[in-house]
Amino acid sequence: MAVFADTPGARIARGVCRWLSDAGAAPLTEFSPAPGLRVDVAALGPDGTVSVIECKSSLADFRADLKWRGYLPWCDAFWFAVGPEFPVEALPQDEGVLVADDWGAEPLRLPTPRPLAPARRRALTLRIGRAAALRLRRFEDPGAPPSV
Amino acid sequence: MAVFADTPGARIARGVCRWLSDAGAAPLTEFSPAPGLRVDVAALGPDGTVSVIECKSSLADFRADLKWRGYLPWCDAFWFAVGPEFPVEALPQDEGVLVADDWGAEPLRLPTPRPLAPARRRALTLRIGRAAALRLRRFEDPGAPPSV
């Protein structure tokens, strides 16, 4: 899902990020926790908790996703975020559910906590922080040559 | 120093950030490591090292800064960054020196390493990462209402 495009998934991601920010978490879209993996939204909570949120614009979108279980080892809390029309009963019971629109989101079901090992949480925190800082530079210094 | 303005200090900060990015570090300008403190540039290295760089556009600017020693407990490595005309012999011998311009920077003297305690480095990494992610949101979603 390309979260910068004006697609249903992108609008869900926008609402999710607004909710996360309001809730005190710092969201980063399109984050790669490890080579070959890319989650729609990752977030660093004030207490250091790492959350991952996958945005599903439709049941077909959810069913086509064969990768989401691979994200579970990379977060303390995993959520699906769906639009208001989504049949939420189709979603796995153990994962969190957010109902989102363009403007925000609301939690419908809390995720089962699966605390990360401290070493992995530290590595992920560094990786999220570095990715956010480097992406921010592209906005703050658009004339910079690409880093080698 | 306001690093977004087109001041001599801001131009030094821009060169410093380009050098940091090229060197594999992820820079964040105007970072507050603790209440009441604000450094010109903080950076997360690939290995998690936290660097702080203070930009000094002139000897007067350096001499007017009574706060820089207060930043030492908040980084593994501390650098001054100055323009090519700066009399570098006026800078303290134990700190790193970068000579910077609008386009980049070069290390003139390496800083004395002062490794942070792991708990503080973890807390700083989270704080830098959250600050970068939240600042990035302002660019990626400029229409978002300010978080409460």
From TrEMBL, chains A, B:
Top-rank taxon: Bacteria
Listed InterPro entries: MmcB-like
Protein name listed in UniProt: DNA repair protein MmcB-related protein
